[in-house]
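Re: the 466-residue chain
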Amino acid sequence: MSDKFQAVVIGGGPGGYVCAIRLAQLGLKTACIESRGSLGGTCLNIGCIPSKSLLNLSEEFHKVKNLSNKGIEVGEVKLNLSKMMKSKQKAVTVLTKGVEFLLKKNKVTYLKGTGSFKSKNEVSIKNDKNEETIIQAEKIVIATGSVPVSLPNIKFDEKIIVSSTGALDLDKVPKKMVVVGGGYIGLEMGSVWSRLGAEVHVVEFLDHITPGMDKEISNEFMKILKKQGINFHLQHKVEKVEKIKSGAIVSTSDKVGNKKDFECDVVLISVGRKPNTSGLNLEKIGIELDEKNRVKTNKDFKTNLENIYAIGDVISGPMLAHKAEDEGIAVAENIAGQSGHVNYDTIPGVVYTTPEVASIGKTEEQLKEKNVKYKIGKFSFMANSRAKAIDDAEGFVKILADEKTDKVLGAHLIGPHAGELIAEIGVAMEFGASSEDIARTCHAHPTFSEAVKEAALSVDKRAIHS
């Protein structure tokens, strides 16, 4: 007899393991299936966590090299890349083991192997020896995440032509790196290798970086990255990537057809991700997909089959770990008969470069498109005492509020700790706050958060320190 569960989650990433824990908390006999051999999905293993570790370590390296400018004399600073990679891996191992402990603590059965559908109530699990186990489930949640996509006829070898996975594991600093795609991941990884000594060139098809971000922030972001030494080639299309003895040649053309070749050691292809739905046998049981191969779901995350649900990168919406986590909790509560809900208007996005970039809610461009009348409040970190005191004052805070009601509609930050500061605005928006609510809240001095308060004051043209 196969094991029977009330709920089974296929995928142990941020959406999947969080969903499994919440299901178990709500009293359901739950299993979580993961093929990787370690929990945490792309995020913990080859995404968010290792990249943030390298971003931090490369920034520390850069800071130490420049400490003498601030009166701290140090000896010769050397990079030990293999040690740095070991430090990154230690962070990954500790966190993935931590997730395993959490599943055990919450009495979730952790099943290692590749899951696929046998029927709408049966899941096949094959281990690395191709041995099969079949389990039965009343409810099944698909949470298999996403994988990097490449350009047509260009294949990853993860040595010369790399995805974000290979870019996190290079064994030496490339002399020259070409990053194809000016989005979050490409700019983060480009920043890491630039700070460690690589000459980095970003090739972007559009006329701006970070598509979907507020344009004013995007423009400021590019200016700062240029000052840091990253080179940008906008409105350039990559036509082919050819491997040669010393690395690769990236052939591009601009919007009027002028050709330009880049010879480099490493090419990072960072043009997006696609849902990881192949191999699940979805067609066998009749699960409907949309035109982008995402699983179709309703507002309660249900597929066209009554007992099967999907969350995270396999469904529509931003491919973000925290979006998947919130959906994991919401779908677990729905399965248990509660009313799980995700507010997609208050999902923040963060780029973990230096300075950080963070946004939440609507951009100016989106408000204009919908003919929403709005007010803007802005405050520069150059006028923030904490930022000036520690010589980290690039960037600004921008708050968008409804012209009549003053309700906060969105916020966009570039500057120190922007990824942390955005949370205050997220809470404010969740409660339907006005910019005046933020402006009248006492903020500690001296802190970076005062820039948020001043931007809120600026909405009503009454900032004190600018």
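The first helix runs from residue 14 to 25.
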